[in-house]
C-alpha cells in the first residue's frame, strides 16, 4: 500500500512539474512575441516619422504656392 501511495505521489509531483514547465515555456514564447511586436511597431513608427518629416520638407513654405497645388 505504501508503494502505491509513493508512486501516486511521485506521479502527481511529476505532473505538477511538467505543467509548470509548460507554463514557463508559454510565458517565454509570449514575451518573445511581445518583444518582436514592439520592435516592429517601433520601426514602423520611426519610418512614418521620417517620411512625414521628408514630406514637410517638400511642402512649399510660400502659402500662395502651397494653395495652388
UniProtKB/TrEMBL annotation:
GO terms for molecular function: phosphorelay sensor kinase activity; protein dimerization activity. InterPro entries: Sensor_HK_TwoCompSys, Sig_transdc_His_kin_sub3_dim/P. Residues 29-64 form the Signal transduction histidine kinase subgroup 3 dimerisation and phosphoacceptor domain. Keywords: Kinase, Transferase, Two-component regulatory system. Gene3D superfamilies: 1.20.5.1930. It comes from the Bacteria. It is an enzyme of class 2 (transferase). PANTHER family: NITRATE/NITRITE SENSOR PROTEIN NARX-RELATED, NITRATE_NITRITE SENSOR PROTEIN NARX. This is Nitrate/nitrite sensor protein narX.
